[in-house]
Amino acid sequence: MSDPSPESALPVGKWHFELVTTDLMAVYRIRDIVHTGTTQYQTVEILDTHSFGLSLVLDGKTQSTELDEHIYHESLVHPALLFSPRAESVFIGGGGEGATLREVLRYDSVKRVVMLDLDEGVVELCRTHLPGHHDGGFDDGRLELRHEDARQYLATCQESFDVIILDLVDPIEGGPSYMLYTREFYQIAKSKLNPGGILVTQAGPAGFLNYTECLTAIARTISETFPETYPYATYIPAFTTLWGYVLALNEGGPGTDGVRLAEIEPGVVDGLISKRLPRELRYYDGISHRRMFSLPKYLRQGIGAEERIVTDENPVFMV
Amino acid sequence: MSDPSPESALPVGKWHFELVTTDLMAVYRIRDIVHTGTTQYQTVEILDTHSFGLSLVLDGKTQSTELDEHIYHESLVHPALLFSPRAESVFIGGGGEGATLREVLRYDSVKRVVMLDLDEGVVELCRTHLPGHHDGGFDDGRLELRHEDARQYLATCQESFDVIILDLVDPIEGGPSYMLYTREFYQIAKSKLNPGGILVTQAGPAGFLNYTECLTAIARTISETFPETYPYATYIPAFTTLWGYVLALNEGGPGTDGVRLAEIEPGVVDGLISKRLPRELRYYDGISHRRMFSLPKYLRQGIGAEERIVTDENPVFMV
Amino acid sequence: MSDPSPESALPVGKWHFELVTTDLMAVYRIRDIVHTGTTQYQTVEILDTHSFGLSLVLDGKTQSTELDEHIYHESLVHPALLFSPRAESVFIGGGGEGATLREVLRYDSVKRVVMLDLDEGVVELCRTHLPGHHDGGFDDGRLELRHEDARQYLATCQESFDVIILDLVDPIEGGPSYMLYTREFYQIAKSKLNPGGILVTQAGPAGFLNYTECLTAIARTISETFPETYPYATYIPAFTTLWGYVLALNEGGPGTDGVRLAEIEPGVVDGLISKRLPRELRYYDGISHRRMFSLPKYLRQGIGAEERIVTDENPVFMV
Amino acid sequence: MSDPSPESALPVGKWHFELVTTDLMAVYRIRDIVHTGTTQYQTVEILDTHSFGLSLVLDGKTQSTELDEHIYHESLVHPALLFSPRAESVFIGGGGEGATLREVLRYDSVKRVVMLDLDEGVVELCRTHLPGHHDGGFDDGRLELRHEDARQYLATCQESFDVIILDLVDPIEGGPSYMLYTREFYQIAKSKLNPGGILVTQAGPAGFLNYTECLTAIARTISETFPETYPYATYIPAFTTLWGYVLALNEGGPGTDGVRLAEIEPGVVDGLISKRLPRELRYYDGISHRRMFSLPKYLRQGIGAEERIVTDENPVFMV
User: Fold this and answer.
1) Can you list the positions of beta strands (E) in chain C?
2) Cα distance from B118 to chain C (closest Cα, Å)?
3) Taking a C-beta distance cutoff of 8 angstroms, is the pair A64, A72 a contact?
4) Which chains, if any, share at least 3 CB pairs under 8 A with chain C?
């Protein structure tokens, strides 16, 4: 027998190709193309996929999908909000599909959200085509939605926030976001955080294949600016990889009673959830928190060994 | 501008296609095909890939790769070996590439390893083409290597083991392994475990997309047979998904001093590693252990809600 | 240098996969999905592609595209119509997108067209989404459009035709058309052809890779029933292969003055075009005719050596 | 029913991707990789494919395959050799796999062949791995094989030839061949042709999708230099497209008795074949000749309308 490939297993149909790295693709079967077009800033596709339901794709990269966006967004939002002592005012940079906003608005403590997404076109498309992502959040009276550059706005605004959430597209050369991953930007953001405030940012892939692409550099850079920094990681199926985040605590807050966030007992997290939120979450709870904040050895080593500090002059880019 | 797809980004070259689910493919760029052929039991390809180096593919599914097999194999072997009170005799079912064997042989405490891989052809190919995987383990005097059916052998052998490791191909309909994932088989295996002995098995994908395919059923089935059962999960890049394992403790051992394996302090694990192993491991340590054993909420819920018990009459299959 | 594949050339975006054979795919970049759904008989996709513009895909196979359907349809229709002595009444089997109809209606001599396409759903979709294909033909007063089985209709209808055009989907096992490629069907069709009438059918791929799949058998079968048979072939870009047709002349007509169709001088064809048609065609003229009817040596040999006669009991299928 | 794509038809295995245009790929299943590497000039892959057998791929583009290279090479060589009045001395530019040489050496009239292929590495690999392509031709005493630039050599050599065959890789920007498709080069070549000599070159894709990429410009350019020029086209399965050639006659020969090559009766060609060659050819005969030289209408129109003349200063490139 000369050929190990089963003749009966053959490819047909419509598929979306996406590069995970230059040598590895994730390929999704497409049921339909709900929208395809170009805004002022980027190409936008909303695909109906078999595996993930509706999927938002910006400049060819999957941003969030109906099936698993709750894993990404709960992981991004809740550690910051739950461990913020007040959690009254929240700044969101990016997050155009509205799901970060939706998670933030679950907190009754939150009185004001300023959300800046540069690309009004994307926000409008998500509002129309991805209702589950925002769940009406765009109509919430606590929201001030602006379509401006987040860095410029933060640098000049007159208020400060309890929580700053950076739900940005990856730092791509020539893209709209790479100046929101630099030391200079984090210093600006810190200056608009209240005492004890928390900043959290998505930080790129965390898998063994490509965790040094930007995650370790972002973690190192933030740790230069903030007194306490926590990289953490969650597996996101639609990204086919472990995904990284970095959370940082500002000085001056009550802190976490001397317990580092990575060591918090699951029961403490679960207690905060039942006190601060009207109901349980789908992905995030005490044990999920412990998983997220207990990094694989290679990530801890990689962050420890990282020497790059991302600056305006030496930004970091993803492939 | 009519087209959001960048014209300059075009696909060329040689790629290996692999189904993660029926609607999702992982596609790897191939540098070379080191071997392609068919043994008595299955097709075997050894590919040289850009992302993962040498990769062993059986019946079209990636089994382990040079880049990240240490993550898979350390996760499979070390929790069982470290928490085995004696760890003298070890049974390995499957594991043809020799990497499970390599990890087991790191322990000086291990005096005897019986390894059964049905497919002598695969073992020979791995011995030749994947030297890093076995690292000479096939020549270790402690090894008895046999090419027989693991279930038949266990049922009739006269000895018992401290640790049984099941490093099997996924349960595929008509494939060689699905009868090694049933309650009847686990009862046979338990009968050949020493008091306090440990059984561990790979248990299929654990990502949100397909964790109910077989992982939850295997976990439930094993928990019917053993007094203490621990499902755990690690992200394996070459599988593009979180991967599941199930570890079970037999009655009669010293146990873990009343501390459940999932709650063990990282320092305890690290202490065992320095006591029992000649040097640190690459992936597995105390904090990686905590990550692996702290399951995402959906997995805990899914395992809790699972009602399927896998039996010889009602086996479970992966797609 | 270890890798010959240029790193900069990478695949992204949305693509339609189509099997040319089981080991060869044509893959088209998709701009948008205009329609995707299922009628009573088959799946229908209308894709907007970069290479071919709008493309009609039935059961996963490209049927005709905006860019090059004129090549396919002119090749199918005009040899039959031009060499029909009267060309007043025309029967079309299949042809749901309306382009065969459009070509037929170019002839003022045509007084009546009976078109049977089983699948009303496809016809409606093409009418809506592919206006260039039918160009208003569905509203022409000469047309009687029916959604019934063509074989059943021909067997029982009371009229006969000058030209019968079979623009059918390929004969697929279990598909709607394979009983329209058998000797019994051709005998029925012949019985409804006027003296000197012409039958023409599409007949599957004609490239060196797969011309024996069905083309040679169809040609042989038709030659058993008709006194004069002409296989011919045209390259259709969207099919990525040479495509076969078979034309047959009924007894009793003036014929072609003893000149076989394959030997006709280009000037004769061009003269007929200027006499019978209001204007030139895009693809078909005297020299294109000579190309189409001058078959490559392997096709002539393959047809000569073919022994299969397609019957109701032994139908022919494409993969 | 929500999805028209049959769930059972799924892609697996190893495939070679190749761009036909930037929006269209041909994808071949690979059985094995016989060779992959890089010479001084280009990357070379010899793939064992299911559809085409052994396939030579240079810089990612299929050059010729075991299954159908006879179609390409017979089409390239025999019109030129058969209509050359003497056919004693032949110059081959390129043609590293040796199949053009093999076809030339079929003629007993041929006394001397000078073959220049820049890339000795490719020639050696083909000699070793593609024995059917050259069939021993490299050992023929009539051959002088050199590894130098064909233009430089022709410009300075002291002899002239009856036939010049240009079997070059496509003109790619930065590639080794684009200066062998310019007016200046054709003038050099003409100066080394004997009276009545013939030059023939491969000339890129001729399908409706991309015939203007370079074929029309090459045809126009050659017609500026030679008194009689014949573009012709053959469908090559492994290229998934119609392929173009241009043949040109030098002044001073007996010519073809006033009959243009495109109008020659099949019987005349067949007569020459039996007179000049020891046995029939596989693809090329009188009727295949008529097919090749009877161009589709769009090609004749495209060549007629072409205004580009390819010069050293304004070369033509394929994508």
Assistant:
1) 13-21, 24-38, 43-49, 53-58, 61-65, 89-94, 112-116, 143-146, 161-167, 193-205, 228-236, 241-249
2) 31
3) yes
4) A, B, D
Q: Which of A68, A167, A170, A257 is catalytic?
A: A167
Q: 3-class DSSP state for residue A306?
A: coil
- Given the structure tokens 């509706």, which residue do they identify? A54
Please give the distance of CA A257 from its chain centroid, rounded to a whole number.
Answer: 27
Pair A291, A202: CB distance under 8 Å: no
Q: What 8-state DSSP symbol labels residue D5?
A: S
The backbone torsions φ and ψ at residue D8, rounded to the nearest 5 degrees and listed phi first, read -80, -10
Best CATH choice for the domain C69-305 from the list 2.60.120.10, 3.40.50.150, 3.40.50.2300, 3.10.310.10: 3.40.50.150
Residue type, A251: E
Please tell me the number of Cα atoms within 13 Å of C114 on its side-chain side: 16
Q: What are phi and psi of B282, to 5 degrees?
A: -80, -45
CB A201 within 8 A of CB A164: no
Q: What would the mean pLDDT of B206-228 be, rounded to a whole number?
A: 96
Domain ranges within chain C, ordered by starting residue: 15-63, 69-305
The length of chain D, given as a count of residues: 319
- Per-residue pLDDT of B17-72, as tens digits, reads 888 888 898 999 999 999 999 999 999 999 999 999 999 999 889 999 999 999 99
Which residues of D are the active-site residues?
167
Give the residue from A2, A3, A7, A12 with the most C CB atoms within 10 Å of its CB, the best one to mutate: A12
Q: End-to-end CA distance of chain C, in Å?
A: 41
Give chain B positions within 8 Å (CB) of C3.
31, 50
DSSP state letters, chain B: ----S-TT----EEEEEEEEETTEEEEEEEEEEEEEEE-SS-EEEEEEETTTEEEEEETTEEEEETTTHHHHHHHHHHHHHHTSSS--EEEEEE-TTSHHHHHHTT-TT--EEEEE-S-HHHHHHHHHH-HHHHTTGGG-TTEEEE-S-HHHHHHH-S--EEEEEEEPPP--TTSSSGGGSSHHHHHHHHHTEEEEEEEEEEEEE-STTTTTTTHHHHHHHHHHHSSEEEEEEEEEGGGTEEEEEEEEEPTTS-TTTT--GGG--HHHHHHHHHHHSSS--SS-SHHHHHHHHS--HHHHHHHHH------SSS-----
Whose CA is closest to D261, among D172, D200, D181? D200
CA atoms of B299 and B213, how far apart (whole Å): 12
pLDDT digits (tens, 9 = 90+) for C128-141: 999 999 999 999 99
Q: Check CB contact under 8 Å for C19 and A12.
A: yes
Q: Are B14 and C5 in contact (CB < 8 Å)?
A: yes
Contact C298, C304 (CB under 8 A): no
**CA A261 – CA A228 distance, rounded (Å):** 10
Amino acid C3: pLDDT: 38
What distance in Å separates the CA atoms of residue A198 and residue A190, rounded to the nearest whole number?
9
Superfamily of domain A15-65: Spermidine synthase, tetramerisation domain (2.30.140.10)
Cβ neighbours of D22 in B, within 8 Å: 7, 10
At the top level of CATH, the class of C15-63 is mainly beta
Residue among C151, C165, C156, C149 at smallest CA distance from C72: C165
State residue A113 phi and psi, 5-degree precision. -125, 125
Question: Among candidates C259, C208, C253, C261, which has minimal Cα distance to C232?
Answer: C261
Q: What is the pTM of this model?
A: 0.88
Interface of D with B (CB under 8 A): 7, 10-19, 22, 25, 30-33, 36, 45, 47, 60
CB B308 within 8 A of CB A308: no
CB contact under 8 A, A209 and B5: no
Report pLDDT digits (tens) over C250-280.
998 765 556 688 899 999 999 999 999 999 9
